[in-house]
Design a protein that fits this description.
Helix content is 50%, strand content 9%. It is α/β, with parallel strands linked by helices and 394 residues long. α3 links the parallel β6 and β7.
Length: 394
């Protein structure tokens, strides 16, 4: 059955302090968990700020809150929302932008993560709502430019429907996990997501430029770095997604071509456009700066990682490590089938590789798992398998 309109009608957008106070009072008087969602404009804006926050609670109904006219400060809602369990789908995506507006949960239920642990084949919100509730959610606006104002009504309907049945879905998933003996696993995972620290900044984020594999020498790599950094500054200043300021392909093309003048740069395909022609001197200055760098300031062609080498090289570099990994993977695959939990949720693949490449010198695999961030349920299930695997020899 298609879910086309919110059951209580489309609520007015909360866009001023008085409406926010009324919303806070309504949600404080409600009961049970609170469904929460947020819409960003990731493909359009540099920032990851929330441009719309959706809420729903029994007794309070739904609310659509626009943080922008409220100065991106929704802390007036915090007392009403602190304490009850929040229900989110793929919570790790929304928690940072919600924290920016002054909202954070005291407890959490993540329906996407619950679906994974329950062994569901598809864990997108739409597929799970369809499979478990028999309802078809409105589609098509998830990747829209939510910074646009005014927001179209069909977008607001889509946003409201995202929290319409989230609590009902949560209850079904909690029942499934309880029947499977996994509810405790899920609660540990939810708490890990809720309390996770922000990811550490990447040491050299410019190396993630798409197509950089075509650039092999230090001098062109310096041009990639300079253009990437120049683009990042401009994107941050204008709050525009970097790829809309200058595509990665254009950065790589300019680095490989190494134009010797602004005119030569402007002759390259992407740089011929009207918007890019206005910035020719800006982009060329970055390229010219990279061209003048002394040799000792150039980036290395390859950066040594802080972890194991690519698995494809293990057999040649350390056959015993390759044997350990093969044994561990086979055992985890069997465990995955037994519990109907994806292997990557049983144990982070990176942690598995690290332990198999360099087993703890004292033999304490359990301590290595804990130090690597494995949750207690993961340690209990996987430790015996890894202890057996690390003794495997080629």
């Amino acid at each position: 059955m298609p879910l086309l309109r919110p059951a209580d009608g489309l609520p007015d957008v909360v866009a001023d302090a008085q409406a926010l106070e009324r919303t806070a009072a309504a949600f404080a008087a409600g009961s049970g968990p609170i469904a929460v969602d947020a819409e960003r404009a990731s493909g359009f804006r540099y920032s990851q700020r929330a441009y719309l926050v959706q809420l729903r609670r029994a007794g309070a109904g739904s609310a659509l809150v626009d943080p922008i006219p409220l100065g991106s400060d929704l802390s007036a809602l915090a007392p009403a929302l602190t304490g009850p369990e929040w229900v989110l789908h793929a919570a790790s995506q929304d928690l940072p932008c919600l924290a920016e507006v002054g909202l954070a949960p005291a407890s959490l239920f993540d329906t996407e993560l619950a679906g994974r642990l329950a062994g569901l084949p598809r864990v997108g919100l739409g597929p799970m709502v369809e499979q478990l509730l028999g309802l078809a959610l409105e589609k098509g606006h998830g990747a829209a430019d939510w910074s646009r104002r005014p927001l179209p009504e069909d977008w607001l309907v889509y946003a409201a429907l995202d929290v319409e049945v989230l609590v009902e879905l949560r209850d079904l998933l909690a029942g499934m996990l309880s029947e499977q003996g996994k509810l405790g696993f899920a609660e540990q995972e939810f708490e890990a997501v809720r309390t996770a620290a922000p990811p550490a900044p990447r040491a050299e984020p410019w190396r993630r430029t798409s197509g950089i594999h075509k650039v092999r020498k230090p001098r062109p790599l310096a041009a990639v770095r300079a253009l990437w950094e120049a683009r990042d500054r401009l994107a941050a200043e204008r709050d525009i997604a970097p790829g809309r300021v200058l595509p990665d392909a254009a950065i790589v093309d300019a680095a490989v071509t190494a134009p010797s003048s602004p005119g030569a740069l402007a002759a390259l395909p992407v740089f011929r456009g009207r918007s890019q022609r206005r910035l020719t001197s800006y982009w060329f200055a970055a390229i010219d700066e990279a061209a003048k760098l002394p040799a000792d300031a150039l980036p290395r062609a390859t950066v040594p990682g802080d972890g194991p080498p690519p698995v494809a090289r293990w057999s040649d570099r350390d056959p015993e490590a390759a044997a350990r990994l093969a044994t561990a993977r086979s055992a985890l695959a069997t465990l995955s089938e037994q519990w109907t939990i994806p292997v990557e949720n049983l144990l982070l693949p990176d942690l598995l590789r690290r332990i198999c490449w360099a087993p703890p010198a004292d033999g304490d695999v359990r301590a290595a798992l804990v130090a690597g961030g494995a949750r207690p349920w993961q340690v209990e299930l996987t430790c015996p398998l890894l202890e057996a695997a690390v003794t495997t020899r080629a």
